[in-house]
Amino acid sequence: MKLKTLTIAMVIMACLLSACGSTSSTDSAGSTASGTDDGTASEQSGSGSESAEKKKLDFMWFSDGVEGEVTQSIIDEYEAANPNIEINLIEVPYNDYENQLKIAISGGEPPALARVTYVGLFKDASITFDDYVDAESFKAQFSDSLDPFYIYDGKIKGVPIDTTANGLIYNKTAFEKAGVEVPANPGDIWTIDEWIDAMKRVMESGDVRYGLVIDKTPHRFSTLLYGQGGRILSEDLQTTEINSEAGIRTVDIMKRLHDENICPASVWVGSENPNDMFRTGQVAMHLAGSWMMTNYRDNITDFEWGVTYLPVGVTRSSVPGGKYVIALDNTSVEQEAVDFIEYYISKEVNQKYCSESLFLSPRNDLADMEFSFGSESWQIFANELANSSPDAARDWGYAQTSALIKEPLLNGVAEVIQGKTSSKDMLDSLAEKVNAELAEINS
Amino acid sequence: MGNAVKKTFLYCILALLTLTFLFPIIWVMLSAFKKSSELFSWPPSFFPRTPTLDNFIAAFNKGDFGRYFYNSAVVSVSSTILAIIINTMAGFAFAKYKFKFRDAIFIGFLATLMLPLEVIMIPIFQVIKRFSMYNSLLGIIIPPAATPTGVFLARQYFLSIPDELLEAARIDGASERRIFVQLILPNAKPLMSVLFIFSFMWRWNDYMWPLLVIRDMDKYTVQLALANFSGQFSVDWSSLLAMAVISMIPMLVVFLIFQKQFVKGMVVSGMKE
Amino acid sequence: MKKSKDWGIKIAPWVLLAPNLIIFAVFIVWPAIMGFTYSFYKWDGLGEKVFIGFNNYVKAFGSAEFWGAFGRTAAYALISVPLIMAAALLLANLLVKDIKLKGFFRASFYWPKMISFIIVGLSFRFLFGDSFGVINYILEVLGFKSVAWLTDSFFAQLVVILATVWSMAGYYMVMFISGLQSIPESYYEASQVDGATSAQRFFLITLPLLKPTTFLVLILSIIDVFKAYPLIKALTGGGPASSTKMIVQYIYEEGFTKSNLGYASALSMILLVVLAIFTGIQFKINRGGEI
């Protein structure tokens, strides 16, 4: 009897497997990024009614909010207008995204297009847009400040699709309750001391537990660093300058914020999530960026929130960020990929993409774009970007920056906060380590 | 009289243990029914203030989850059936036969358990591609089925079969094949139940294999789709919790069905202890 | 009277072993060997491989961070594994008895293993959050002081161990239940006739006869705990200050985040060799895990 059950099971499995097998064989023919397979197939069908070859492009993608859905609707419109093109949007989990893209490339299955954070990591695998478009006029569409993020060795290696800015989100309800005003225009911007003072007053009478949470990343930390006139890397990207006087002042500010209980230790020493904390309504301010707009819009209903200006240190600065699209080499559909990208970043389409996904646009002619939600906030973010140090773009356009300083900086600041070491000592040893690794990279 | 007290005591302990143990899970499940604005409200709520199914509806709309569940089911069941067959065979070979290289191969199996698979992702990718299993469900059904743990469990189980039993059968003229199919397999029900439970769970929860092998979203499994709810800057808790809760159900069902097979003692037909 | 389709005692084991062995060799062993060769190169996964001989291994042996992570993982395993085994055995023992709702209870304790590690990590992280965690809230309501669960190294390590034991105990409980089933009832019946107490039954009959299963659970749980990564990464991210950063996370960060695949490969090989030696010693002590 057991044998019978086994045989039946094996038969069922064989059927399932053959079903999978047939689906996979048709799909694998179609899913390779190269268009030639499809071309050959349609030629062999010989009916002649479909004279155009259907080219299939894989578009690797990761989302944080709704930008994937928005892109899909843009793709649908493009496909309707170009019936011989099929674009397959593939959402890959962010935490494993870079790895998966690398594996796909080195394994010989590169997607035609991919959304990336750091173009620099993939510059050797992506096409050079200069070969396909007029470089000067192409570049001119986008804000100059973004150049370090997508132009390497003078060549265009990726295309900006959205821009973000670091900024200060605050709990309006709490501030009103405490009777504290936020800067209404760039002329009123707080100094660091005024900022700390404001937060303290809100903590006293605004019914919040903490004044501020800062995302635990070097990117957010660097906001304060640039404000102090410092920077992470030297102009030639060969050494680090984070242990300058400005750097020491920045770490001291972090320490002061924690010593005076404005910031909870659980974020920068532990791993508590600042987003979740701000959502409780128990924190007055959140040093994050424009990407939080969708999240907070959808999830915060118990209190009112808004965006205000970052404080000024020695100077004003925010940090630009954003995403880029690259077209990979060796996919045999490079031209089709470029065609789609040109459509995707054209003024009309990019406007649709950015306004529905709630991003700033990298295009110069969309700098004053209208948003359906939070228009004041967007003006503030745009203003912050316009008043940022060029060091920020250079530091973060360099693809290795995050990997180099993330761990030692985060651990180091945590130790300073806990009083285990001084700002200067921590930064000096950090600089030593980073310089050694930079030397290895550049050797 | 003492027995009844003992039993009640036992039940009380079990109930208490279970409740404490299940607290995180219960909290996760209840949170799936909370509005997203309530998830992080302060003070925290245990029971949803305004229970809602919105999260489940929204999550289903964020991806083709009907399809993903189908894929996960096909993969889990097929791979489990395959695994039970080949692991049982291999386990029996290790347990009851002496052959050259037996111990070396066994240690080899064991050794690969100690390797974090993430490190060999690129070579695995290339092998998968070479066998035309890239972007195919076969690629996540066949390779993971040869799991060392399954083989160990089978070996462990078969070690406790008395050698005399096999000898007696051989003396009676039974071939090795007959011994395996007609003597060993019918008595391996408890083992196969455990293997079914474990293998189904492993395959259902597989993340690395589908991530590596599958390209097209219409072949995504549930775990792969779930991971998309963790973005770069924030986690879509509402959708993640909702789908995670639903995702647990098949595994629970499989467990409840097969754990009944944990029958006391091994009934070995034709041989009295 | 030999049937022509007989396997024969010499061929039989190979026929039985073949399917598993072939799949295993093709999809795991071959890539593992390829992975091993990477350890002699400097490679970022995309560009050219540069042969550097044993440099990666030299770097690893000289890296204080590597050995720090290794030591932490060993300590973590040393504490977690006995706890997991004790919990699993205890629960298994409870749940083989004749009680109602056996299936429900078994499912309850097995449940954590069915949830993906990432969700377990994220949930525990929220539950044990210092400022806004549920546990601290309950503590405060009850009049106690809140604990810096994930900000203090000691407590963070405690929470990691707790989450590990919680999510793995049920899995090994199932293995123990399976093992307990194979102890013949007649032994217990005989001992009852002799007037043995339940404690005596446990220590003198159950435990010795459970040795093979115990041995298996020991080996598998050590390997599982040593390879722990997704759970801890989601729970503490390796903090505070690397106090919960284990070896696989270190390999991941050095290898993948820093695009240094050759180094990651070398580190993995070292891990494998150490685990293999350790397992080999256990096998020798147990004489192959046989009764």
Explain what the structure shows.
The complex is a heterotrimer of chains A (443), B (273) and C (291). With 443 residues, chain A is an alpha/beta fold. Chain A has helices at 2-31, 36-45, 67-81, 97-106, 135-140, 147-150, 172-178, 192-205, 218-227, 245-259, 265-268, 274-279, 292-299, 334-344, 347-357, 375-386, 390-397, 401-417, 423-442; strands at residues 55-61, 85-91, 113-116, 151-152, 155-156, 159-171, 210-214, 283-289, 305-308, 320-327. In chain A, strands 1, 2, 3, 6, 7, 8, 9 and 10 form an 8-stranded mixed β-sheet that branches. A two-stranded antiparallel ribbon of chain A has the order 4-5. In chain A, strand 1 (55-61), helix 3 (67-81) and strand 2 form a beta-alpha-beta unit. Residues 18-50 of chain A have low confidence and may be disordered. With 273 residues, chain B is mainly α. Chain B has helices at residues 2-31, 36-39, 54-61, 65-96, 102-113, 121-130, 138-141, 148-159, 163-171, 176-184, 189-205, 208-213, 222-227, 237-258. In chain B, helix 4 crosses helix 8 (148-159), helix 8 packs antiparallel against helix 11 (189-205) and helix 11 runs antiparallel to helix 14 (237-258). The longest helix of chain B has 32 residues, at 65-96. The radius of gyration of chain C is 24 Å and the shape is flat. Chain C has helices spanning 8-38, 55-61, 64-94, 102-114, 117-127, 134-141, 153-181, 185-193, 198-209, 211-226, 230-235, 247-257, 261-286, and strands at residues 41-42, 50-51. The mean pLDDT of chain C is 87. Chains B and C meet through helix 1, helix 4, helix 5, helix 6 and helix 8 of B and helix 1, helix 4, helix 5, helix 7 and helix 10 of C.
